Amino acid sequence: MRALVALLPSALALAACSSPFTNAAIGYNAILNEISAAQQSADQLPVSGTATYAGYLLLAAYDNTGASDDFIGDVDMDATFTAAGATLDGQVTNFQDNADEQPVAGTLRLNNGVLDRTASLTNPDKPGTQHSFFVNADGTLTNQAGDTFAFDSVIYGDVVGTDGSLLTGQVSGDAVINGVTESAGGTFAARAD
What we know:
The chain is an alpha+beta fold.
């Protein structure tokens, strides 16, 4: 998470420039503004039907020195609602590298996700913390220098806004960086289309 704190100000500083990275950072911050003004609402989710969520994933892979590689990607996630909550799946694509604002090859698959309207899902990284949803985020990214980052992570988060219109969460897990297992972290924000 250390790198993500540094990522947001640098992304905001680029607002005068126009690049895919800057546009994604601006979009991410717009969703965060909506989230900060909304209240949690998992209990207000629809009991049937579907929704598509679009947003952004800020992702960091930390090497053994504590340095990180930071990426931002476009989230496209589908929810199928039931009386209990929803199932979630989708993908994160169009990654950009924060270091050089260059495209990053690869996709993270969002799968096996669950949305619980009682907000009683426990985060294994923070015992005692309850969330409304979780979804696995797995896949491999390759930057312009040829470095590979194989992510095995999970997003835990909450539902906010009217009828579950906004999702926000934290990423935790592992990243195998050029064959060495290190830690991964990040943040997630999406809104229903």
